[in-house]
Design brief:
Blueprint lengths: L1 H12 L7 H7 L4 E5 L2 E4 L4 E4 L2 H4 L8 H13 L12 H13 L6 E5 L2 H18 L7 E5 L8 H6 L16 E4 L4 H4 L6 H19 L4 E6 L15 H11 L3 E5 L13 H5 L5 E4 L11 E5 L1 H14 L12 H16 L2 H17 L7 E7 L2 E6 L15 H12 L1 E2 L1 E3 L3 E4 L7 H22 L1
Helix pairs in contact: 4-13, 5-13, 6-12, 9-10, 14-16, 15-16
Bound molecules: pyridoxal-5'-phosphate.
Length: about 450
């Protein structure tokens, strides 16, 4: 009864993010009530392996007592303070230091926000601010990529290169452009090698920069692996070619490590796995294992210096959130980073990631599977109607979403992306045995849908 009342209240009072609100009226909510390791339990006691770690974020699973204790300690000691106008506090200071020390390239400073979207908005504002400070007010355009995901605030949604984030929102805003997506499986031409495709992507970026006038292009944003755009790994040599173009035209690289950061790809940062040397790095999600909302923007000395000087000239760096470096969130993030070290999270990603990649690749010959990809503890299976031509199913058949619905029935939460891509991004603490259980449950779902469509 309680559960039905809650369901009714959900249907009566909520607006769900990223939800077909009409379909929700009949489908109703999956109400989670508790978590344990890599699993969550619904209000009827059914368990689900969280194959997406929530939203690619709950890296330490759903029941880490040390994070709850860190939050409680900080709540009791100093539940709130801020870092505006020369104020400070220990968790904020120590987290800045930890992140700067852990950065994949020499970084000078850290700035905190509450979400990945805000971190990317902050990066854009910093770029505009410093280019004004450096006396080049025309150098403001930002290039992101088709199928990128950088968030949903007005500026970060503009960076995002997915139609649903623009349509009827009157986005993107001016001066944000989208270059080619690096999806070799979908965008590679017949006979084109992966390396040649990567070079073509860089050539297309260069052509865009030249068409726009290099003096007007300020920065390029990239996720090391595109997440919500369909778990797209960079083709071989991609970032090498892209960074050569950026360097040639004095364009900053912003690495959006919101998904890849803190071990997801097998190294601490996706930038290390794929050879990015960012000028600005944004991170969130696994920074606190998602137990508290917190994100960060790391900047090099070259970015920090003009920002510092300009704030001196104007009288303030006029940007900051009430909850920038919230002490409870910062304390939880510090504890999260300590746990990653103590429990050798990268070691676990190596072992369980190998198992995940092996299980994913075992579907390569499946009649519905066009492409399997991934690294570390992130991966995807792309379902197609025609393996030879890569021909997709009609979107109206909703093959990917149907697999995900069946998977939920079988007890694993996954996510379907546009183009019938089923994504996997489990908590980084998952064991090889749990990977097997997750993939066994997925197999049941895939076979059920295969029987329907073949
Ligand atoms: N950047 C990337 C790569 C993401 O995957 C996300 C969220 O999924 C964001 C930014 C936006 O983060 P948030 O939802 O915390 O605003």
């Amino acid at each position: 009864m309680v559960s039905n009342a809650l369901r009714d209240a959900d249907l009566s009072y909520t607006i769900h993010p990223y939800t077909n609100l009409v379909a929700h009226e009949t489908k109703g909510p999956l109400i989670a009530v508790r978590g344990e390791g890599v699993r969550v339990f619904d209000d009827k006691g059914k368990d689900y392996i969280e194959g997406m770690a929530g939203l690619w974020c709950a890296s330490l699973g759903f029941s880490e007592p040390r994070l709850a204790a860190a939050a409680a300690r900080q709540m009791a000691e100093l539940p709130f303070f801020h870092m505006f106008s020369h104020k400070s506090h220990e968790p904020g200071i120590r987290l800045s230091e930890e992140l700067v020390k852990r950065a994949p390239v020499p970084m000078a400073r850290a700035f905190f926000c509450n979400s990945g979207s805000e971190a990317n908005d902050t990066a854009i504002k910093m770029i505009w601010y410093i280019n004004n400070a450096l006396g080049r007010p025309q150098k403001k355009k930002i290039i992101a990529r088709k199928r990128a995901y950088h968030g949903v605030t007005v500026a970060s949604a503009s960076l995002t290169g997915l139609p649903a984030n623009h349509r009827d929102f009157d986005l993107p805003i001016a001066n944000i452009l989208h270059t080619s997506s690096p999806d070799y499986y979908r965008e590679g031409k017949p006979g084109e090698s992966e390396e040649a495709f990567a070079k073509r992507c860089a050539d297309e970026l260069e052509a865009m920069i030249l068409a726009e006038d290099p003096n007007t292009v300020a920065a390029f944003f990239a996720e090391p692996i595109m997440g919500a755009g369909g778990v797209v790994l960079p083709p071989k040599g991609y970032f090498e070619h892209i960074q050569a173009v950026l360097k040639k035209y004095d364009i900053l690289l912003v690495a959006d490590e919101v998904i890849c950061g803190f071990g997801r790809t097998g190294q601490y940062w996706g930038s290390q796995t794929f050879g990015l040397k960012p000028d600005i790095l944004t991170c969130a999600k696994a920074l606190s294992s998602a137990y508290m909302p917190i994100s960060a923007v790391l900047v090099t000395e070259e970015v920090y210096k003009p920002l510092r000087d300009n704030s001196g000239k104007i009288g303030t760096f006029g940007h900051g959130y009430t909850y920038s470096a919230h002490p409870v969130a910062a304390a939880v993030a510090l504890e999260t980073l300590a746990i990653y070290d103590e429990r050798d999270i990268l070691g676990n990603v190596a072992v369980s990631g190998a198992r995940l990649q092996e299980r994913l690749r075992s579907f390569a010959d499946h009649p519905l599977v066009g492409n399997v990809r991934g690294i570390g503890l992130i991966g995807a299976i792309e379902l197609v109607a025609d393996k030879a031509t890569h021909g997709a199913f009609p979107a109206s058949d909703a093959v990917g979403p149907r697999v995900v619905t069946k998977a939920e029935e079988a007890g694993v939460i996954l996510r379907a992306m546009a183009g019938d891509v089923v994504a996997f991004s489990p908590p980084l603490i998952i064991t090889p045995e749990e990977v097997d259980q997750m993939m066994d449950r997925f197999t049941v779902a895939l076979e059920a849908v295969t029987a329907e469509v073949l």
